[in-house]
Amino acid sequence: MTLSAAERARYQRHLSLKEIGAAGQEKLRAARVLIVGAGGLGSPAALYLAAAGCGTLGLVDFDRVDISNLQRQVLFDTAALGQLKAEAGRERLAALNPEIRVVAHALELKATGVLALLAGYDLVVDGSDRLSTRYLVNDACVILGRPLVSAAIHRFEGQLTTYVPGRGPCYRCLFPQAADGMVANCAEAGVLGVLPGVLGTLQATEAIKLITGVGTPLVGRLLTYDALELRFHEFRVERRRDCAVCGEAPTITAPRDPPAPAAAAADGVRRLSARALSALLETGAHAPPLIDVREPWEFATGHLPDAVNIPLGELPERLAEVPRTGGAVFICRSGGRSMRACTLALAAGVAAPANLEGGMLAWAADVDPTQPVA
Amino acid sequence: MSCTVRIASPLHSYTAGAARIEGRGNTLAEVLGDLERRFPGIRFRMIDEQDRIRPHMRLFVNSEEARDLAAPVRGGDTVHVICALSGG
After folding, report:
1. Which residues of A186-275 form beta strands (DSSP E)?
2. Stretch A171-187: mean pLDDT, rounded?
3. Active site annotation includes A186
């Protein structure tokens, strides 16, 4: 179907590019792109893809807009606070370009349903904030043969790669295995607000190139960006023949969820509620050692008295600082990192480590509402 | 031999915030040994007990990936330490 007069007017600057023209614009209109994570990366990617006339845009995010998001998540404004990101994003994109269709998926991606969801799209842009989601999306894309444009950020640094099944490596070829909690995310480590703006627009660029068939995509290449030095570096990344999902003898043939923190915990890790820990601490002489595994700045914002700060990333080589007896209690913001710390401590011979379930957020909710939590 | 080592952001806590440091050695193993002497604990974040590069880390000499610690490093090379990032 040819472009309407309204579309010709809207996309005039694209039509002037001989590399895109009417044929490219029609390809964009026919394209269905799924954006996983309507956050720092997903915001600019979604805005530019909507503006470019990408015909169907899906937004996956189960979260709601928080005031701390607005420093970088330009898809939202202050009036959207508290709204579901997928819904608020859909309204913003529809206002930007009523010619396109935007689908809000206000859900958490899980192994069950991920294939059915992705099957309705031609290309996936990953800007999620969890490694487990990144692996889930990668595996689903490999299985379905969908191109994936993936970026990630940390403080002042970003990474970008385009994965096209059959034409280059996948995310697991680059990083065969990684676990959430071992690498700090934006909430824990901080991020320069404009950083995802750079990486997210590069993702949109790659998506448009793949859809229109213009240029050379970033396949088999890892691009890194250092905002402080304003430097890009490029690295060659090859497909691994032993890759668990796209290799010659794949062991992952269906999407799978990461083990739940509770299930991942080895036998011997105790689970402690905030109220139970409060009662234990009141015993004074028998109070357990407290190990807070959050980043130093989170610890500085507020922590339990007598807690020792050993960030999770440093724990493997600082395990000697954890008392072997006394039932050390591991603490983080919401209980995920501390559960990994418990598992590490248990393996290192710490007797009966305990995890503060729900972390400092649970402590603030159930024990001490005045407790500041970063 | 003197080389430049660019350190992934999640490991800056070991290098007093420095993203770029000078390293010495003729192989990746020697360069990482040099780093470990000056920034204790940093090697363990990249390399496991069996001397394998951890699966969430990638090491490159200039733009080429180093799959093991025997990779040669020449004067003026840049060793890049890349870490899987989760932020979005």
Report:
1. 221-226, 231-236, 270-272
2. 78
3. yes
